[in-house]
């Protein structure tokens, strides 16, 4: 009676699908810098950079007409000064640059075409570990000063608690899904 068994377990298949969707949500995302405006002199990258929560594994896509702009990943002081004579970590200029965010740290990007950085083609983002619940307390790699002073730009109502609640809710879903899988296959 395999068929009967399958249909009896059908609701569990749904849970499995939901579980898969959650996993996908936690893996990686592509973000086109500037969204529809892309990487150009008119867009406001300060507001763009605060629109999303970036996690390790995400990819930034810089789209622009090759030769009109470029993308430098820089250190914070270079981001602030727009002086690219030092502090440049990586350069991109293809017009369709895919930058994978491989570390949990602050990333800073500028356009090094003359005047563009000072004109607003620059932004910084804080890339977080994909699963904060497992790796939040204890070790943070060598930047003790940046931790306690950090405030959310627009504090929603008790954001910390909300995060905690949604994290434990997710954990609940995962546990439930694992339990179901265990019953199905063991
Ligand atoms: C980013 O994270 C904060 C705090 O966890 C949350 O309040 C906010 O809704 C998130 N924003 C997006 C776009 O996911
Ligand atoms: Cu530019």
UniProtKB/TrEMBL annotation:
<dbReference type="Pfam" id="PF02298">
    <property type="entry name" value="Cu_bind_like"/>
</dbReference>
<feature type="compositionally biased region" description="Polar residues">
    <location>
        <begin position="130"/>
        <end position="149"/>
    </location>
</feature>
<dbReference type="InterPro" id="IPR039391">
    <property type="entry name" value="Phytocyanin-like"/>
</dbReference>
<feature type="signal peptide">
    <location>
        <begin position="1"/>
        <end position="28"/>
    </location>
</feature>
<protein>
    <submittedName>
        <fullName>Phytocyanin domain containing protein</fullName>
    </submittedName>
</protein>
<dbReference type="InterPro" id="IPR003245">
    <property type="entry name" value="Phytocyanin_dom"/>
</dbReference>
<dbReference type="InterPro" id="IPR008972">
    <property type="entry name" value="Cupredoxin"/>
</dbReference>
<dbReference type="GO" id="GO:0005886">
    <property type="term" value="C:plasma membrane"/>
</dbReference>
<dbReference type="GO" id="GO:0009055">
    <property type="term" value="F:electron transfer activity"/>
</dbReference>
<feature type="region of interest" description="Disordered">
    <location>
        <begin position="129"/>
        <end position="162"/>
    </location>
</feature>
<keyword id="KW-0732">Signal</keyword>
<feature type="domain" description="Phytocyanin">
    <location>
        <begin position="29"/>
        <end position="129"/>
    </location>
</feature>
